[in-house]
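Quick one, probably user error.
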């Protein structure tokens, strides 16, 4: 079954506490569409109210949940989706989320997370690890991170590295750009700020061998210095050996004045 409640003004102010079993008669519900479905009042607590609704409703068959365009910016209840054990697709595009601040390891069947068009500037290491954990339990996990204002420079070095090593399928990864120039800059932390990265960062990814190169250069420099020192030492030692011989030779030389040559005898 499919329930579509898009483009409504559902008031969520305490609905989870006042009507926790609002979906209790939808045991066979497979798809729930709540795109732009809630009133703006108290929207900050939407995940807390939804958690109370989900945990008190029998939605054990729900496979697809659409929550696009609801101005969700804060996850006040990280367990909000955990009462949905068979959830496959979670659509959260065009909200105001800044990260994956909800539990995903409790959704063992999750196959797709749509986070397109949010306000994500970067993802923490633990959030990336959580994605890898879900991936390891599934045949495949797909995530869409496109159209987010990712930071440029070293702040997203971990995300850049993760994109090149994870087994999670990142949809539209080739279109991901950092915010400095969305039309030109790929998601490369070294594209604009390569020289400003702290040295531990510069030696981890694109410049991963830079540290080794510096060490090799240092060793070569030391070897050259040692060689020059040896040459100077040998040259100095050789000069010391030649100096006594030069002095001895000098003492054996006698100087005489040049006089008139004796006249030759003439024999008649």
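Nope, works fine. Designed sequence:
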């Amino acid at each position: 079954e499919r329930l579509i409640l898009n483009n409504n003004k559902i008031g969520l102010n305490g609905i989870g506490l006042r009507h926790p079993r609002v979906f209790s008669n939808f045991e066979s519900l497979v798809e729930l569409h709540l795109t732009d479905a809630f009133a703006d009042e108290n929207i900050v607590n939407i995940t807390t109210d939804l958690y109370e609704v989900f945990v008190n409703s029998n939605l054990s068959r729900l496979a697809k949940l659409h929550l696009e365009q609801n101005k969700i910016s804060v996850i006040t209840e990280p367990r909000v989706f955990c009462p949905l054990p068979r959830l496959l697709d979670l659509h959260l595009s065009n909200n105001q989320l800044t990260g994956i601040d909800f539990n995903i390891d409790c959704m063992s069947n999750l196959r797709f997370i749509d986070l397109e068009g949010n306000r994500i500037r970067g993802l923490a290491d633990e959030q990336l690890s959580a994605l890898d954990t879900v991936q390891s339990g599934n045949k495949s996990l797909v995530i869409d991170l496109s159209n987010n204002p990712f930071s440029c420079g070293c702040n997203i070095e971990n995300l850049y590295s993760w994109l090149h090593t994870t087994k999670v399928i990142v949809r539209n990864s080739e279109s991901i750009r950092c915010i400095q120039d969305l039309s030109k800059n790929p998601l490369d932390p070294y594209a604009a700020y390569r020289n400003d990265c702290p040295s531990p960062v510069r030696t981890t990814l694109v410049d991963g061998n830079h540290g080794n190169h510096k060490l090799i250069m240092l060793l070569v420099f030391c070897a050259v210095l040692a060689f020059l020192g040896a040459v100077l030492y040998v040259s100095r030692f050789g000069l010391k050996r030649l100096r006594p011989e030069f002095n001895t030779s000098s003492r054996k030389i006698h100087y005489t004045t040049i006089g008139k040559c004796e006249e030759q005898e003439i024999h008649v």
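The first helix runs from residue 15 to 18.
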